[in-house]
Amino acid sequence: MMGCKYTADSILAYLDGRASAAERRELEAHLHHCADCRARVEEFRRLWSVLDELPAIEPSPAFDARLRERIAAAPQPSPWSWLAPAPRVLAAFAAMLLVAVWLSWQSPAPAPETRSLEPGRSELEFTMIRDLQVLEDYDVLANFEALEALPVATEPDERRM
Amino acid sequence: MARSDVQLMLDVKAGDEASFELLLQRYRTPLVNFLHRMVRDAALAEDLAQEVFLRVYCARRRYEPGAKFTTWLFRIATNLALNAIRDGRHRKAELSLDEPAEDSERALELPDGHPTAEQQLLEQHRQAVIRRAIFRLPEKQRAAVLLHKYQEMDYDQIAKILGCSESALKSLLFRAYEALRVELAPLVGLAAEAEQGRAPAAAGEGRKA
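ok -> structure tokens follow
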């Protein structure tokens, strides 16, 4: 057995009849040469025959009556039990609901309302609006094409010095 | 032609109570025996077997034919047995070989060709040794051996019941049979002697733990 490629699995499958015909033939050929494996197979065979000695028992005559009592005492199906036969439909519906909720959270927020100067604005908001004005002015000046026609201001000509 | 388990269960789902009775007749004894060997308590085994059938009945409207019916049935039974063992509802005491057999066990030990009282005692003693050896296996190994040896289920079915891979199951089964081979060595040795035509010695000699 030691060092054999025949494992316990193949010996078990051989003994319980689950090995294929080819596996059976292969192991039987091996058993002719390997005394260890032969001894192991014989031991398992005897063990199984010993285990067969264990007698079966019969359920008591009251088994069925007691079961019927328990079935009668079992809680009746709830008013929601009509949902039970279609668990996949329920799961699909729940998944769609979740996707819908998720999408509604992911959609872009509505555009902010146009600001208007109204009494009661906080100091911070006024500061932001003033700063925005400066930035807008800078943007116009930086991209004002008319300014590009003007000669570029140069430093005084040093060569004449 | 007998209806298959799946067909019977579909009929139960459609409201046919008689089909449930047929399933009950088909699997009552195998389930009680499996559970009895798992928990070693006849009353608890019956209680658990009824619980299995009750659960099957209560789930009838949700039944979808998928895996084999017996896989579903014995999976429920195995889980209930493992829970009962973990909850300590089974017999906790170490089994004594001198302990008398339970009534249910004794009732079925029918004399074979009028054996002598001594032969009957010997037989009962051997059965007690075997029962104890099986009960001493770790729970999962015990369930694997019972499903393999006594219910004659295929590896893939047992693997599904126990929630493991087929290769893990084979290794589990081999460890279990190895442990049984060691534990039952005197009986296995006696079987070998009997095969060789020698007179068997007293069973289980020197095996009382």
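Chain B touches chain A through 49 residues (CB under 8 Å).
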